[in-house]
């Protein structure tokens, strides 16, 4: 059973909170003097804090769109694609390009030279934490534009049209509707773009960074465009990512993406079932478990993207006493 009602409620709630945040930030900014000095500094500090909150909300939308990537957001294919495309676009991500990027990542998870996420996080910790998310977003827009070179193939035309339609609709809101309602881009979209890489990395770094490389017999990569293509399931004893035990409210907000390695082993499951599956299988699978995102980042800062088994042995759930 898919939690369709919960997913719809969460999607609508996140959108409502985002627009309410835009409205509140704009009206609070109007209470500051237009001049510089301390008042100007406080004004932009406030706008920055709202931007952090907004990216946290957009991350929740992006994760719901990730459910749609795996076709487990709604049972209806139409609503799955529509909501997935719109939620992804609000998070500034082209949905079908992201599906290609993400499902290919599943098929080659943490395999050097094959996993498309290499470009995102296969760097020194500080570089990955600050620039990595921007690199990943850029890679997905490159995939979007590559469809322009394959206009003779219907599948690629459809993917391109869907992504451009969703992005065009959302950017018409960001750049047209909101400014017309008195909410300029300087208080809404621009701060989001500025803080997006750092805030998104706060979560994303704990997906796969600091995990031993997965050995593969493959020497070339074949991109995966949809769930019925390729292999999206990690082998039982292979570790490609982390499980971050965090607060229940954040688990709900971010749709249990903190159970990232569980998702890689069971990608056909809705996010609702990941905590239960983790509890049932943690003594059998070698999950790498850490408590809290801050503690995870403090641990990751001393590791390489591809680290050694000795470096993470203490975090394995199947060897815990």
UniProtKB/TrEMBL annotation:
Residues that span the membrane, as ranges: 41-65, 77-97, 124-145, 157-178, 184-202
InterPro entries reported in the protein's UniProt record: FA_desaturase_dom
Pfam families xrefs: FA_desaturase
Domain Fatty acid desaturase: start-end pairs: 43-283
Keyword vocabulary terms for this entry: Membrane, Transmembrane, Transmembrane helix
Family matches, as CDD domains: Membrane-FADS-like
Top-rank lineage group of the source organism: Bacteria
Record bears the keyword Ribosomal protein: no
Protein name: Fatty acid desaturase
